[in-house]
Specification:
By secondary structure, the protein is mainly α. It contains 9 helices and 2 strands. The longest helix has 27 residues. The chain is globular.
Length: 235
């Protein structure tokens, strides 16, 4: 591919998305992403507190999710579990994911849709863990019984879900497909565990949501316009 053609492909893929983000930040600066900044701050506070001798248990009580606990307790903890950094991963990775992906999503989707998609993706992973353990390790999508006691926290499933929705909305199809392929490769070759399979569950749930939005938008506008479920495409 020649350089001009490559440049055109990059502009076609990311141009509308980058223009939207750049315009919002130029006009409102950090006021464009207040929820994202609050999420980053909350995650940082949780990380500091849970590493104190007195803080680990309180943070686990409000934001730690395990498939082996009662469903109602897991559902109560799921929203805050998104902001509790995983103990086996560097917190700076979680903070960077939140700032970048949540920030872009807050600008492109709005606060309500961003939070709704983030929760849906996280909840999909939480519910999959229970289904996977029930199916058992003898099935391709099953999990071993020991995963019922794995602490399941962090923003990764929400980040994957938001990345898919944003790229779907802005018709960045190559990036959208790359996210899906990356999650499949992760499970097949890198991280065939609870976290990796929860990412696949998040992908599945969000793709269904995108498909529903797409169908609903086409039914609302039978003339073949480019309006999808209340979203105006940037191209």
């Amino acid at each position: 591919m020649t350089e001009p053609a490559l440049r055109r492909a990059v502009r076609a893929e990311w141009g509308p998305l980058l223009r939207t983000v750049r315009s919002a930040l130029a006009k409102r600066k950090l006021r464009a992403i207040p929820v994202t900044l609050a999420a980053v701050l909350l995650t940082l506070v949780f990380q500091i507190v849970q590493n104190q001798p007195w803080g680990y248990r309180p943070i686990q009580n409000i934001g730690s999710v395990q498939a082996g606990e009662h469903l109602w307790l897991a559902l109560l903890r799921t929203p805050l579990s998104l902001f509790v950094p995983a103990l086996d991963l560097p917190v700076w990775g979680a903070l960077a994911q939140l700032l970048l992906v949540f920030g872009i999503a807050e600008i492109c989707l709005g606060r309500r849709q961003m939070l709704a998609v983030a929760y849906l993706a996280t909840l999909a992973g939480t519910m999959y863990a229970r289904l996977g353990i029930w199916l058992g390790p003898g099935t391709p999508v099953g999990l071993p019984p020991t995963d019922a006691y794995v602490v399941d926290t962090g923003p990764s499933a929400a980040v994957v879900g938001l990345a898919l929705v944003v790229t779907w909305r802005y018709r960045a199809w190559f990036t959208c497909a790359a996210v899906v392929v990356a999650m499949v490769v992760e499970v097949l070759f890198i991280k065939n565990n609870l976290a990796g399979k929860e990412h696949i569950a998040a992908v599945a749930a969000v793709l269904v949501l995108c498909a529903v939005w797409e169908i609903a938008g086409r039914r609302r506008k039978p003339g073949g316009g480019r309006h999808v479920s209340g979203w105006e495409h940037p191209r």
